[in-house]
Amino acid sequence: MDKNAVIGFILMGLVLFGFTFYQNRQYKKQVAYQAQLDSINRAEHPEWYVEDVAPEADAAQAYAETPAVPQQAVYKDSLLELSSKGVEALYTLSNDLLEVTFTTRGAQPYAVLVKDYLTYGKEPLYLFKEGNNRYAVRVYTGEYINTADFVFSLAERTDSTLVMRLPLAAGGYIEQAYTLPKGSYQVSNRLSFVGMENTIPRNVSSVDLDFATTVPRLEKGYRNESQYSKLDFYFPGEKKPVEIGRGRSASKRIDSKLEWFAFQQQFFSSIVYAKKSFDSGEVAVDFLTDADPDGNLMNCSAGMRAELPRENPSAMALEFDFYYGPNRFQTLKSFGRKYEKIIPLGGWLVGWFTRFVIIPLFNFFHRFIGNFGIIILLMTIVIKIVVMPLTNKSYLSSAKMAALKPEMEKINEKYPKQEDAMKKQQATMDLYKKAGVSPMGGCLPTLLTFPILWAMFRFFPASIELRQQPFLWCQDLSAYDSIVDFGVRVPLIGDHLSLFALLMAVTMWFYSKMTMSAQTASNDPNAASMRFMSLWMMPIMMFFICNNLSAALSYYYLLSNLFMMLQNWILRKFFVKPDEILAKVRAAADKPVQKSKWQLRLEEAQKMQREMQKQQQKNRR
Length: 621
What we know:
The chain is of the alpha+beta class. The protein contains 16 helices and 21 strands. Mean pLDDT is 80; it is low at 47-64.
């Protein structure tokens, strides 16, 4: 070995020894500094170490007391290696609405308790329970690290603020700061990379954020709860968020900026808002079965990428807001971020009617009345009275058609053959013209009430105000009312029998029967099929649909049917005189009827049909 080689080996040895010596000194300084900081915290705030669920020893002491295990290091950074073996501690922030527990492992939310609410089983309501939530940050610092793998140390704590840090031997630290103000469902989060301008390479322009939550079941009926649970995400400037899920597992890749996403249970949500928007991401929701042994509803995840701000290299920070709370329309709307759009209120027409009519009317009555069954009754009466001027004309038209039943029977006897259908239709139109009856009048009530019925279909199952509110035999108007529990699941009907749904179907049958009594029997098979659908199939189908839905919805449909039956009966009883209508028709029997444009077109069509029949007969010869 020559002289130059020996000198080279000596220099390499000196460099290696110097680097090891420097790293050990830096490590001892960092541990000493952290121990001093923890001693000050312990002296100034001894309650931190008594009230928390965590061991009394803080994270830094736990590092020092961790016995050395002869194994190969996972991380090049010595402090990260030590932090990965630390002991987890739990801390809590609480106000009058929320109690949020944080873990030092990953410096992330660990459990969220929503106060003033209970599950259907009367247990404390957790949006996610211990260990069923993940908020992890992945960043490159010379090596890829995931904050969920490390135990942070407590840096600061007040009644409303919690700050945790992860120091790096190479310099600087990652800081997670959380703030929970009084009277708020929102937790503010500031993720900072302090003094890491030389640790994070300049060519690293983003960090990856991993959010995942297992949402527990909170309501009575799995089917109803899962149908109104989903995952939402919102693009900047859009009118409403995009949704996936609604009882079905789904995933979506997002290649553009988005402001927020929501893990939405039927009545409660976890919403993550980025103040500078996420760059891209991928979201997914996976629904669990009704028989899940842990009583969970769905697994939600969102992998997001966010730009790493470089305006202040020594303190790069990302800011997020976490909303943990109820899906109450006014509460969500107060943030001005379109959060309220996650509540399913229908399309533009139905949604407009719900937001500007149904919700204000509901809130108005709720100011004076505490019984929600009475509120729904009053809402039904008000809505029916408002549309009454429009529906009265239609009901009167239907009642007059019932009075013309004897004359309609004469027309049926005169034209019994199928080939005389056009002549019978022409005679029927002449009869309606003489009596002053509009044949299309009976369609108007359906057209008017359909948007209202659909608005109610959307509103009641999504209204948190009805949650766990009793009325009569029903214990929860937001869920189905059960008077018989079968113990096993029966196809179509489920495992129970809802009395409100049954009564709604019965009143629908009676209303259809009342309506069809105004119609003359016909030999037309299509007419017979329509009567069967109206009288039997629709009530049965509505029963199967509503048996598992909100009792408030079935109750409203029941009241609506009863009101329509009463209105129809009053009009026929006191405002329609069948004898006068028949006398008017018979008096005009010999007078020519002025034909409308529709009748003229009908006659023209009849002529064309006869000409085509004659031409076909000639061709056959």
